[in-house]
Amino acid sequence: MVGSCDKAVNVEPSNSVSSDTGFTTKEDAAAGLLGCYDALQSADYDGLAFPTIVDLISGDIRFLGTFTTTYGVIGQNLAAPDNIQIGNTWNAIYVAINRTNYLLQQSDKISDPAFPKATTQAQARALRALHYMNLLALWGGTTQGYGYAGGLGVPLRLTPTTAIGPETAAIPRASEAEVAAAIRADLDFAIANLPTTTTAIPSTTAAANVVTRNAALALRARFELRMRQYADALSFARMVPTVANFGSTTPGYSVTLNDAIWQLYFSTTDKNQYAFYWFGGRNEFDPGLTMAAAHPTGDRRLPINVATGGQTLKYQRSSTGDDPFPVVRYSEVVLTIAEGLAQTGDLANAIVQLNLIRSRNGLPATTATTTSAVLADILLQRRLEFAYEGMYWFDLRRTNTVQTALPTYTQTYRNLFPIPFREVSTTNGVIAQNPLY
Questions:
Q1: Where is the SusD-like N-terminal domain (predicted)?
Q2: Is 202 exposed, middle or buried (0-12, 13-18, 19+ CB in 10 A)?
Q3: What phi and psi, each to the nearest 5 degrees, are found at residue 73?
Q4: Which CATH number is 24-425's, of 3.40.1280.10, 3.10.50.30, 1.25.40.390, 1.20.272.10?
Q5: How do residues 230-245 score in pLDDT, each as one tens digit?
Q6: What pTM was computed for the model?
């Protein structure tokens, strides 16, 4: 019995890597990279929770279910620091960051000439940039939006934590500007080292399920737009190759997958929770009360966004759980170009780009003729195009229109989410709470 127990205890786990051993082969690094993507798929992250809480706070999703103390209070704009889902999502993002940090550290040690070190690290750094973009988007900036003086950031960890001790010591929040600099550095590296296309997983799917150079360019454009750097947003968006016949294709990525630049892949054995939570088992969510009326007459997105029975066709595979989640779509690139042009004084060409989206969705050319009217139409198209993809709240924040679009949201400090209570309490305030929570 003693011998048997001793033998079992000394077996190296087959589903994990010891931090003492680390990655030693290109196969180790490939497995580590898959683990980085897996972290993004978490049900507390882009497997359900992150885009869901974003659209609950914006009112584009209506809460119906039983998670009243988590999703429910978020939907009422009453999120508090002790909200378990907010804490779980914060933690899931930092788990994802730590995986990328570990891969970057360990892959530097691999000298095999057959190991694609640059592209592996470029994918990891693009993922890390996305994670910090998401952290800043919910918990950072100011009540006015992003990119203003004095903007709040989040703890910035760029090296892995592998053991309890100095690596796990609490660090204060960096400034928004410091986090933004790290995001830009990661995306610049990714853009310089990623191929334009890469093999999808599985290879039969239409869109890439791993980060490509085009996806990194689109993420950089997204970030610059969020930071109100319109000329830079325009420049990076224009580097993304045009999708042939984009304006004439049918709408709805979930129906045709015709404009996804990068999507998260799920399968029957590696499921997401979207359709299950919408209507397949829990029925926790419905479209927001204003969603249907927001669609112009004849909009072909309406039956997708607000389907018969009050659901959505974007997530419908409740039994298999293999609806892909779109991280980056070409529609976003087009609307970023349109907004960048409008904000930099080229209204005529902004309207051309805007009409690509309108035509694709069965709408006539815009009647807007002023900059403010064109921008309003662009923001409406973004809301309808990316419904339930976790985008609208960030558009409201970056344009400083939260209180205009949602007039019952009078407590402007709630424009920033609360830092999870455990982060503040266990660090004795080293990680500072957002003001007034």
A1: 79-225
A2: exposed
A3: -70, -30
A4: 1.25.40.390
A5: 999 999 999 999 877 7
A6: 0.93
